[in-house]
Amino acid sequence: MGMPTKRGGEHVHDALVEAGVDLLVGLPGTQTLPLDRTVVERGTLRYVMARQETAIPHIAWGYTEAGGGMAATAVVPGPGDTNAMHGLKNALDDSVPMIHVAAEVNPADRGKRPIHEIERDTVDTAVKDNVFVDRGRAVRSTVDRAVATAQTPPKGPVRVGVPKNVLAAEVEAVAASVEPQRVRHDTDDAYDRAAAAVATAERPVVYVGGGARRAADGRAAVQALVDAIEAPVLTSYKGKGVFPEDRPEWVGTTGGHLPTGGRRVLAAADVVIAVGTAFDGVSTDHWALPMGETMIHVDVDERSFDAAYEADIAIPDDAAHAAYELVARLEGASGWDGARIGEAVRAEYRDALATAGLLEAGAPATTPAVLDAVRDAVPPEGVVVTDVGGFRLWAFQTFPAFGPERYVTAGSWAGMGVGLPAAIGASIANPETPVVCLTGDGGLLMCIEELHTAAEEGVDLTVVVFDNADYGTISKSPEIEDYGGGRQFAWASPDFPAIADGFGCRGELVETPDAVEAAVAASIDRAGVDLLDVPIDRTEPSVADAGSYESTVDL
Question: Which pLDDT value is given to residue 112?
Fold first, then answer.
């Protein structure tokens, strides 16, 4: 007797469930129906139906980033794949594992221009791997291998292309037991040299990247390292939140917007311990930030070594393991008072903002004042998800984050339109925890249809819109002067509260920081989706300009 048969879509479903996936995000199409129907009928996986394919991987990414585990996505061929590429590339750059099931045209129809036909390698640059199932017998084992690949560091999304005829056909397919790969390097000598460099350092700095976010126990390991050497701490975009930013050692988030005091700390360092980072362009001000006299670079991906900054000591290892290993080899603490330095740099920056009138309570509100108000209203355990825009650059410096799964933001891909769908995913992952989405008006207009998804899914979510009726990052960039200056790319914003109401949410215009704090607190206390439209002072300086001042902190 042969093995029992079942539809290819059922094999895909079972592989995902056995891998621990409990969320599939999709948008049903003719080609994906055999899988869509299986997911809905079985009820084991939660099925979230987005309104546009671009949002599909963003929802899955937000779910994983906020602690929900690995998610899966499903799209039709052609438009489904190409629309999803934005979110897939974001997940790839952020090392977020994901299984992207893409229906394909039937192999016999290739080259005849069937609906949605696309070349199979189109998505290659947006995923960690791109695998195909042309025969039904291979469908289950292919998904099993894809799961292991997605979860092998550096993690990332894997596309599994499955033709509709395979998803719909009754096939025999056996499972495969495949474990994520774990590579161990001979790093003993590198650790000895690193420990010796740190032990003799007078001005060490810890630089925290996204690898510490990915590592199991990364948060505790980083804190142990900081405690051992009493160093000031800076983070990359993806490292933000790994080190609790209510601790005095925190200096700031790196990038072109890093305040002058933070740049001075990096320049003064005799040793920088960079834990889990690839030194991407956005976090390093296009590689212009100093990285001390001696740089110890720890990363799980050897390809990052010497690509942006030359490492004096390169350690290919998991970020948490590396931090603990250094602590075990160190004796005594450094002579640099990281807490004093962090507090002084932060206080100097806040004084500069206050002097510039950027923390005042009136209307029109400034971005830093609104961020302060939101931070005061959201409890420390709350999850904050950001879109991409000028408000996000302000948030890197003025909005403290208290945990890696409590602050969700994109890394080097930095594409707009991610905030709202990612916040939906974060809310699904944390149904009992307040979730707040910070977005600009420009970013929201790229994904505003997902307000309907949020309402239909019944999530509890607060959306704060920093509404300056402008692509403010562009209008305030130095390059704009070459084109005549001014707000050339501005607009009259739509009535966001009315749109929210139309989608089944609750919309409100909120004009002062005090009113924002009250409105966010009220939203957190009630069920449903609230959109708070906050007009922002169009004349406020850019975060880079506000952070450029003469620093006098004694280092």
Answer: 84
Cis peptide, bond prior to residue 434, ω within 30 of zero: no
| Selection from 245, 251, 339 nearest residue 289 by Cα | 251
**Cis ω on the peptide bond leading into residue 316 (within 30° of 0)?**
no
Spatial separation of the C-alpha atoms in residues 58 and 426, rounded to whole Å? 10
Rounded Cα distance between 155 and 10, Å, is: 26
Residue pair 425/60 in contact by the 8 Å Cβ criterion: yes
Which H or E element spans position 115? none
Write the single-letter amino acid at 92.
L
pTM: 0.95
Token pair belonging to 196: 């010796």
**Tokens 């206080």 identify what position?**
347
What digits encode the pLDDT tens for the residues 447-463? Answer: 999 999 999 999 999 99
Exposure string (b/e) for 461-494, b if CB count within 10 Å is 16 or more?
bbbbbbbbbbbbbbbbeeebeeeeeebeeeeebe
Token pair listed for 497: 């509260």
Closest CA to 45 of 119, 123, 101, 92: 101
Place of tokens 């830093």: 368
